[in-house]
Amino acid sequence: MKLPTCWSCDYKFKWKELIFFIEGRKKCPKCEEKQYTTTHSKWKMGMVFLPAWLCTFINLYLTISLFLICYYFMLYQVEFTDKQQPLY
Ligand SMILES: [Zn+2]
User: Fold this and answer.
1) pLDDT at residue number 39
2) Residues with Cβ within 5 Å of ion ligand 1?
3) Closest Cα partner for 18 from 31, 48, 2, 86?
C-alpha cells in the first residue's frame, strides 16, 4: 500500500495532509497544482466503506470503529489527476 502522489510533480502526500481533503480543493504543497480524485479511485474508496455500511444494522459502536479503520485504508486508495472526473 502506498499513499497518493501529485499527478504533476510526483510529490508524495503525507497521511496527515490527506485526513481532511475536499474534492477539487486539494492542492499540492510543492507545485500548487489542484488535485482531483480519479473515477477509479472514487469507486475503490467507496468499496472500502462497504463493510462499515453493512455493520450499521448490527451495532453502532462497531460501525464507528469500523468507519475509522476504513477511512485509514481509504486514503491509500486515492489517486490524483489534473481534471475533475465523473463518477461513472
Ligand atoms: Zn505537485
Assistant:
1) 93
2) 6, 8-9, 11, 28, 30-31
3) 2
